[in-house]
Amino acid sequence: NSYFFETNANNTATITNLLKCFLLCWLYLCKDIRCKCICPPYRDVEGQIYKQNVSLKDCNCLHVVEPMPVDGKDVEAYCLRCECKYEERSSGTIKVTIIMYLSILGLLLLYMVYLTLLEPMLKRRLFGHSQLIQSDDDIGDQQPFANAHNVLSRSHSRPNMLNKVEHAQQRWRRQVQEQRKSVFDRHVVLS
After folding, report:
1. Alpha helices in 50-159 (DSSP H)
2. Name one GO cellular component term (predicted).
3. Where are the domains positioned within the chain?
C-alpha cells in the first residue's frame, strides 16, 4: 500500500512540475508580459525604444536596454533619462475577441448575400415574376407582398418556422411601406 501512495505522490509532483513548465513556456511564447523602455536622445546617441520580456522586478533600464549605447559613467545618466513601463496583456483574450468579431462580420456578410441574391430568386419562384415588377406609381398604392402569408400557408413543403419568419418579414415590410406613405405622401411624422 505504501508503494502505491509513494508512486501517486511522485506522479502528482511530476504532473505539477510539467504543468508549471508548460505555463512558463506558454507565458514566454505568448509574450504576454514585457518591459518597454523609452530612452530620449542623449549626447550623440539617438532616442530609442527597447522591449524585453522580463519580470516586474527586472523592469528597469539596466535589464532591458541591450546593448547599452553608452559606456562607463554615462550609463547611470543615460538610464535616469529612460522611462520604463511594465506591460501585461492577454493575447488569448485578444485572439478570442478578434475571432468572435470576424465570425459575426462573416455571418452578416452571408446574410447580406442571401438578402441581395437568393431572396429575390425565391420570391420570383414563390410569388411569380409579375408581382415583383411594378411601376413607381403603383408602389405607394399596392402592397406587392400582401398575399405572402396566404401563399406560404398553402405551401406544405416549407417548414413551419420558416413560415413564421416569412410572415414577420412581410408584416415588417407592410409597416415600413405604410410609414413611407405617411411621411412622403401625407407628410405626417410620428412623434
Report:
1. 61-64, 74-81, 91-113, 119-127, 129-132, 136-141, 148-154
2. lysosomal membrane
3. 31-89, 91-128, 134-191
Whether 91 and 32 have beta carbons less than 8 Å apart is answered as yes
Parallel/antiparallel/unpaired status of strands 48-52 and 83-88: unpaired
How far apart (Å, rounded) are the C-alpha atoms in residues 151 and 73? 90
DSSP string, 151-166: HHHH--SS-HHHHHHH
**Hunting for cell 514566454 — which residue is that?**
28
Nearest to 51 by CA among 43, 41, 39, 69: 39
- Chain Cα centroid distance, residue 15: 35
pLDDT digits (tens, 9 = 90+) for 119-171: 778 777 776 644 444 444 444 444 545 555 455 455 544 567 777 888 888 99
